[in-house]
Amino acid sequence: MTDQTQSVDLSKMAEDKSREEKSAGDERVRKVPTWKRLLHRPEFGAISGALLVFVFFFITAGDSGMFASDGIINWTTVSAQLGLIAISACLLMIAGEFDLSIGSMIGFAGMMMTIPAVYWGWPIWGAILFAFAGAMLIGFLNGYIVVKTGLPSFIVSLAFLFMLRGLTIALSILFTNRTIVGGIDKYADGDWLAAVFGGVIGKSLFTWFANIGLISSYDDGTPVVEGIPMVIVWCVFLAVVASWVLLRTKYGNWIFATGGDDKAARNVGVPVDKVKISLFMFTAFTATVYAACQVFEFGSASADRGVLKEFEAIIAVVIGGALLTGGYGSVIGACFGALIFGVVQMGIFFTGIDSDWFRVFLGAMLLIAVLFNNYIRKKVTEARH
Amino acid sequence: MSEFIIELKKVSRYFGSVIAIKDIDMKVKLGEVHCLLGDNGAGKSTLIKTLAGVHAPSDGEYLFEGKPVVFESPVEALDSGIATVYQDLALVPLMSVTRNFFMGREITKGRGIFKRFDIETANQIAQKGMAEMGINVRDPSQAIGTMSGGERQCLAIARAIHFGAKVLILDEPTAALGVKQSANVLKVVAKAKARGLAVILITHNVHHAYPIADRFTLLNRGQSLGSFMKSEVSREDVLEMMAGGQELDELTAELEEFSRLDATA
């Protein structure tokens, strides 16, 4: 009986304590203003950074044509190309891994679709599917080695960076005796799958825009912007899908859990290995989309395509608010990171500033972003007593 | 069905030539808190890992709901309703309360490619599950990194209860906590017991164990010193058995502190 009262006393005591805690907690909740809550969103830094960049170039390059229709398409295309690979690099980084082979994969995938189409007489759609299958197989291998050996993905994918770049050059010389393989455009005409990557959509809309004088046109009446390039469509589409998957699905929760603490995730039954391998395959997939869009835009594949793109993708992802250690980040943030990248790269061109300053700016942005993210992480994980 | 949900009969576990636990008898009943007490190295960890299906007994019999069982893995034990909350809690600090609560067992709605994590319902369930444990979660989307150690412990327990645990094994739940937070966790243990769960509480803090336990099993150097109902032993008896009487002096001060707390409560 005495024991009974004791435990009752104890729970009563605990209740009092927790009431105290609760009321203290309430006060704190009320104190946090909305802007501070926004500050704690992972994409906050990238979105405000993008706004700043726009304001800056509006002022310095507003009359240079940067914000005319062709100028807009110009920097949107550059941003979208980077956005494509930033989206997958972002998911992978949230899951706690890196893929440094994205850039080399762009070159390799481009060759994988161009050589069979131009030299072996494959139909274009077959060559494209072959490139996707091959790239994703390599992505699988990359991920499989990482999860089975437990080695840092930094090292494993660095190895793939060199191997794939070397193979791209060696194989293109072996099969074609050159490192730039052109002429794919004459096969691509009328191919249903090539049209998904090359070309533009909304032609009639833009012609109408030109007719009503909304956008300028050349002397022969064709608008300066024919339509929206497919790479932009791909980037927006993948951003929406990837963001939805990350935030709204079971699999998305597994990505956060895998990167946040893979041991804890494993203990509650999250298939950590499958999550990681599938994300390595997704980075290979987006690298191939990137490659396909370039191949059908230029009509050629080149062995040096995509050099350093892996680092640009990582910079965009980090500016987008993802933590290098995993478990935290945002696809939308990564896309805004890519947008900052594209706008600054093109903006510097339009303002006539020496383009060397672009790299200085990038490095500085990266450093600021990392410091900012670090601060946010501390805020988010700070224990409350 | 037997009166006891778990019964160990002369269970031993060896690792090579090392005898980790030897001839342990233990009975766990639904609606009871069973405290497993012992100093470091007494074999508590081996015993709970045997209960949780991590290790199979080398010798002896493990009865679950009256039937002999051999769990091949912790997952099998979990499926039978034996959930273990280890000290690392299996929680991810950067993730929200809800996301942690449902980690690995997300509830979904929709079909085919539109099948998605039902966050609204999950938020409600997590909030309700925590409220039942006496913790008011204002914002289920807050990262649990912002919660105190005690609250995290409670979240791990609430999660185990929600996913159908019948037996809850808690490994040193109050080890790293302050007095206030320990009291919160013990209150959650009391609630779990009130819901008819069997709780196996591992601790070497008698002051935490005594108020809440119904039954004690004491371990020393891999062997059981016996199981006792609370009515059979006093706190001092338990302490003496655990510490061998040697360190009582040191602990007297701590004891006084605790009884003072009891009195003021």
Automatic annotation (TrEMBL), chain A:
Ranges annotated as spanning the membrane: 44-61, 73-95, 102-122, 128-147, 154-175, 195-215, 227-247, 277-299, 311-344, 356-376
Pfam family for this entry, one: BPD_transp_2
Molecular functions (GO terms): transmembrane transporter activity
Subcellular location: Cell inner membrane
Annotated keywords: Cell inner membrane, Cell membrane, Membrane, Sugar transport, Transmembrane, Transmembrane helix, Transport
Membrane-protein topology: Multi-pass membrane protein
InterPro entries assigned to the protein according to its UniProt record, in alphabetical order: ABC_transp_permease
Chief place of localization: membrane
GO cellular component, one term: plasma membrane
Bias-annotated ranges (Basic and acidic residues): 12-27
CDD domains, sorted: TM_PBP1_transp_AraH_like
UniProt region (Disordered), positions on chain: 1-27
Family: Belongs to the binding-protein-dependent transport system permease family. AraH/RbsC subfamily.
Reported function: Part of the binding-protein-dependent transport system for D-xylose. Probably responsible for the translocation of the substrate across the membrane.
Name by which UniProt lists this protein: Xylose transport system permease protein XylH
Annotated organism of origin: Marinomonas alcarazii
TrEMBL record, chain B:
GO MF terms, alphabetically ordered: ATP binding; ATP hydrolysis activity
PANTHER family: CARBOHYDRATE TRANSPORT ATP-BINDING PROTEIN MG119-RELATED, SUGAR ABC TRANSPORTER ATP-BINDING PROTEIN
CDD domains from the UniProt entry: ABC_Carb_Monos_I
Species annotation: Marinomonas alcarazii
Domain of life, source organism: Bacteria
InterPro entries attached to this UniProt entry: AAA+_ATPase, ABC_carbohydrate_import_ATPase, ABC_transporter-like_ATP-bd, ABC_transporter-like_CS, P-loop_NTPase
Location of the ABC transporter domain: 6-246
Keyword Nucleotide-binding part of the UniProt annotation: yes
The UniProt record lists the keyword Nucleotide-binding: yes
A Pfam short name: ABC_tran
SMART domains, per the entry: AAA
Keywords for the protein's UniProt record, in alphabetical order: ATP-binding, Nucleotide-binding
Protein name as catalogued: Monosaccharide ABC transporter ATP-binding protein (CUT2 family)
